[in-house]
Design a protein that fits this description.
Elements (H helix, E strand, L loop, with lengths): L2 H14 L3 H10 L5 E2 L4 E2 L12 E2 L4 E2 L11 H6 L15
Parallel strand pairs: 1-3, 2-4
């Protein structure tokens, strides 16, 4: 089974867990985020596209319907405008 299929199955399994506490424990156990502190309550059923860029500290509660935007491509839009150019992604992201 390829990586994409495995991730789809994991996301489906995560989505079907009824309890936010159990979903939070699953995320921590599987190192889903870059790091995840203690006593984290993660309510959303939608998982971020690039969780490896997200660090969650201790004693954090994330409400439902919260979306994490981990990156965008706005520099490509600006660089393609007439007279545009020179825009790049901030070095602190790397």
């Amino acid at each position: 089974m390829n990586y994409v299929r495995k991730m789809q199955i994991k996301r489906l399994f995560y989505f079907l867990i009824p309890s936010a506490e159990k979903r939070s424990k699953l995320l921590k156990k599987n190192n889903f985020f870059y790091s995840m502190g203690e006593n984290v309550h993660f309510q959303p059923r939608n998982l971020p596209a690039d969780p490896k860029f997200i660090k969650i500290g201790n004693n954090v509660s994330v409400a439902s319907d919260v979306d994490f935007i981990t990156h965008d491509i706005i520099q490509k839009v600006f660089n393609n405008l007439p007279g545009g150019g020179g825009y790049s992604i901030s070095p602190w992201l790397y």
